[in-house]
Amino acid sequence: MPPWLLGSLCCVLAARAALGGGPAGAEEEEKLIRVLVLLPQDDAYLFSLGRVRPAIEYAVRSLRESGAGLPPGYAFQLTYEDSACGNRALFSLVDMVALQRRRPDLLLGPVCEYAAAPVARLAAHWDVPMLSAGALAAGFGAKGGEYSHLTRVAPAYAKMGEMLLALFRHHQWNRATLLYSDSNPERSCFFAMEGVHVVFQEEAFHMAVHSFDETSRHLDIDDVVRALQTGERVVIMCASGDTIRNIMLAAHRQGMTNGDYAFFNIELFNSSSYGNGSWRRGDKHDLEAKKAYSYLQTVTLLRTVKPEFEKFSLEVKSSVQKQGLHEDDYVNMFVEGFHDAILLYALALQEVLKIGFSKKDGEKIVQQTRNRTYEGIAGQVSIDANGDRYGDFSVIGMTDPEAGTQEVIGDYYGKQGRFEIRSNVKYPWNHGRLRLDESRASEHTNNTPCKSCGLGESAVTGIVVGALLGAGLLMAFYFFRKKYRITIERRTRQEDCNMGKHRQLREDSIRSHFSAA
To answer: What is the pTM of this model?
Structure first.
């Protein structure tokens, strides 16, 4: 063989070995778990890469150091991409496959519903497990087809609905008003209330639904509260902490904090950004707010603390602060969830390898993530048969109205479906009046006593004249409508077009029917 040909052959073999072409390279490739993390770069999100990345790397490091988390020789290779809470998540996944000619072995994220929907469909098509602490909307609960490879490691909004259902059964309620802010792009409160609505609707509960934009310059909180007075006495709310406080102040001024109404506030994600249940702000309204908040209870995720959690929290806090982020909540539901997702995948992979399959058998791995209970960073984590985490929740209420002390007054354990009320809890509302929900309609339409139940002659004359005037106005409106019908239809089409993005995503991408209800 000519020397130049021998040299060329050696170069080719060396390059092939470097790329994993040899037996050793093939074995290393088999044991390398490629993880694509799809989260937003923007730190305005509670689940940004800057906040979650330290938790993911803490979990990987813990598995490596323990020596028991992964089979011998296996290792994670993490790739982080900006999902931008939109289509960029899908593009990043497609680019990875197109440019590197290989699929990831595991997808972590996205969180935002509109970003997660197309990625979940592609994950199912490519047989890639997808674990997320997001995608919490009710539409992702249908795992039979396009979302078959999605496992949610944080409690979905429907799980919170199940908790509220248990709470309502405890109080013997079957009617509610749902009030939420629908202002941010990810629409967290909309999807949270959708989860509650789906669960309540299955039980045939009667519901009134009101939404508002808390960022609007034209928002009138007094109008929002007046709208509540036409609904049910049990009010479930989702909005920012400051907006909840303003609503409670307005309700107090309008006489709704006297035992006739029960208010519940949803604190999302174990973060004060959504639904902070504290009344204290250090302003002139604190005293009034303290009185109003005695009629408000806050629903939040149950908090458990292990010794290891303290170490985890300090390390995450240190890493996040080095990036210039300084805030009150360094460890929220998403940070915990993505840490626990790594542990769940490692457990599932071990089970799959034991029965003779490999990391490429995504469907087998997904099956092993379900019907499983394991120890997470903050406590026990249980995933149901549908691939959704059971939710454990707490209810926080004011236990000392004089001091304004707020404490946990009840806990809900999702796996057992059990709601436990702490002893010696006194409710501020009047149980008897709150149960008389059916009287609401007559109460609001008949507020003044009837002094004379008969019709006099002047009343009959007024009715006849009013009928004639009404007929004339009806005819005038008919001709006006006919003349300007084209203009009205054109305007309607323009408004429909402007609805655009959210309606299409809501109905087509996530299969949500909450708005129609």
So the answer is: 0.79
